[in-house]
Amino acid sequence: MIAAAPPLLCMQVRSHEPIQIVTRDVNARGTRIRFIEAGAGPTLLLVHGYLASHVSWGDTLPLLGRNFRLVVPDLPGFGESEKPSPARYPYTFDAFAESLVDLVAALDLPRVSVCGHALGGAVALAMAADHPDVIDRLVLVSPVVYPPNVDMIFRLAMEPLLGPILFKQIYGARLFRSHFERYVYGHAKVPNDRIDYLYEVFNAPAAREAAYATMRAMLDTRSLVARLPRVTAKTLVTWGRHDPSNPIAHGRRLVREIRRARFAVFECGHSPAEECAVPFVEAITSFLGEEVASQATR
Fold first, then answer.
1. Residue 29 belongs to domain with CATH number
2. Do residues 113 and 135 lie in contact, with contact meaning Cβ atoms separated by under 8 Å?
3. How many CA within 13 A on the CB side of residue 120?
4. 3-class SS of residue 111
5. Segments forming the whole domain that contains residue 267
6. pLDDT in tens, 155-191
């Protein structure tokens, strides 16, 4: 029995009024995806990073929900979504992207803006490159496009013999927490219950299998890099200046390789949405609001 997700209204935004959150399931590519909906306005799809879930956006929901209809899924294999075996679901950038396109279609949404963090940013790029008709605007938060810095445990996990055993059976709560504290939340203290919850939904055989398959797929980003010229949506690339796992130089390179892209840097680590929620929301609301204003004058 998995504990309930921690409260989504927390830390920097507790002074604001809470918004109503609805939890729903949908079948996409033969896999059950759990997602939450909140707010009203143009649709914004929020896509979490590796080993995370919808709870990673908890600090931003009360603020973003004032201006946008938020659709926040757990990717297949993560959070509370179904975790099919890698033999049935490939756990690649493209597979995740196609699942989210199915989700958008199931909700009868003609077009959406997408904001993706890390792994979710790579998925958002794949969506924008392969389904430009679905994407209005794109917000990328330290996306995995070029090889990132990974911790020793993940490097060991890639060893052919002992690696799978280490990751699927030995990788425990202490190492899991250390990974988040060192490589994700380097400049802010995120509530303990959030990391505890993420470990709990990870700590099951099917979830570990899915996470391992995803990690292996993330090592090869060449097809994603090759498709960057096909991204035509207006794009905001955001980065934490002190990101320990994805250097800011990667962000500068990405802005050069995507047409119609601009760059925003925050004084934080790998997860601006959790470490500096208010300035992060202000930046993306301003960027996405330009599209809303443009549509209103047509």
1. 3.40.50.1820
2. yes
3. 30
4. coil
5. 11-296
6. 777 777 777 887 888 889 998 998 888 888 866 677 7
